[in-house]
Amino acid sequence: MSQQFPDDFLWGGAVAANQVEGAYLTDGKGLSTSDIQPHGIFGGVVERHPGDSGIKDVAIDFYHRFPEDIKLFAEMGFRCLRTSIAWTRIFPQGDESEPNEAGLAFYDRLFDEMANYGITPLITLSHYEMPYGLVKNYGGWGNRQTIAFFERYARTVFQRYQHKVKYWLTFNEINMSLHAPLTGVGLPEGSSKQAVYQAIHHQLVASAKAVKACHEIIPDAKIGNMLLGGLLYPLSSKPQDVMETLQQNREWLFFGDVQVRGHYPAYMQRFFADRGIAIDITAEDRAALQSTVDFISFSYYMTGCVTTDEALNQKARGNILDMVPNPHLESSDWGWQIDPQGIRILMNELYDRYQKPLFIVENGLGAVDKPEADGSINDDYRITYLNDHLVQVREAIADGVEVLGYTSWGPIDLVSASKAEFSKRYGFIYVDRDDQGNGSLERRRKKSFFWYREVIASNGASLKG
């Protein structure tokens, strides 16, 4: 029998404010970059006008219904819930000198409700959104001033929730800025690599300043970074493919290298030089980057392959992140390849590289769920997916990897980030709403709800395999 999960393992689920809360202009909230992308990250920018509507404006109405949802999470036995604070609830335009009290009060209510059930909050400061005011008036993260605005926001929420929240993350999937610059750094799609990497630099400095502020204000807290775990394999054993894979993996590991080690890795000097990129890094920036994270958190959904064969690369264009598919793996309904063993490989890679605790903060299967005539939802495919991944997490723990917890993505159905769909469901809890926004918003337990409850209750002993 492989080693089991640690006794204090934080089992739970993960959501994001802009995918569940709704109430998009309620109680003084300002417009965020997510609000001007009502059709999702890859759905383009839409100027919002009074009276118009988008599916995320209500989402699953978590803003008003969270007590019901937290109760359901508690029924599953959650020890942890990851969510995010909507920056625009606290600073509606981003540059105010004083925070919005109504926004702060909402998260007080949410964290108090979680405390009632003994659920530990894991809170992301910026999850795929920032104040649109900072984009419009300052140029987003392309402007150095945004660092100070973010630090003010971070210090405000650390001060306010210091007795309620002990686990924090800075930026969600920070490496995604390379693929979605508006979502990541508030820059227009099609921005130059020079502009994107300069904005990323400002964000890395801001992340480090948030780490320092967290350690000052909440000495007993832990604060981590958050990477999109984009593990790539060579398609063949050709040395050219192996070298190209090393370089492409470094493009996302670079973010972790800076946040964990406190400086830019040497390989990035060549990367920048080869592309004619010159980053403005001040002495103050270098000092700030020395404040490093306590743990590494990451999402894991799939792996991809790398080849130097240009014909195969052309064919892959349009796939998720333009990745070449692995001929040895099956795919989900959305073309995401399913690779449970990849999570064990990734965990070993990250732990070998950083020797810091890991936290799996997103992993899940987006699928079309069809209620039966009696209303039940038999999502055995989700159970299989999660079971097989958790077995590999257990193997990684047996390998000696230190893991704090596992929060599955979307424990309750939510609006998908990429295309703002409801039809792509992740949850253990079904929400009655469709892609057109029709439905009662009624919550219903799926078969996976009872499966996950048993996994948590048995601390993973019920897993098959």
From TrEMBL:
Q: Which GO terms describe its biological process?
A: carbohydrate catabolic process
- Family per UniProt? Belongs to the glycosyl hydrolase 1 family.
Keywords, comma-separated and alphabetical: Glycosidase, Hydrolase
**Family annotation (Pfam families):** Glyco_hydro_1
Supply the source organism's classification: Bacteria, Pseudomonadati, Pseudomonadota, Gammaproteobacteria, Enterobacterales
Entry annotated with the keyword Lipid biosynthesis: no
Protein name, as recorded = 6-phospho-beta-glucosidase
Q: Where is the active site?
A: E362 (nucleophile)
Gene it is expressed from: ascB
In alphabetical order, the GO MF annotations are: 6-phospho-beta-glucosidase activity
The yes or no answer to whether the keyword Transcription is present is no
Q: List its EC numbers.
A: 3.2.1.86
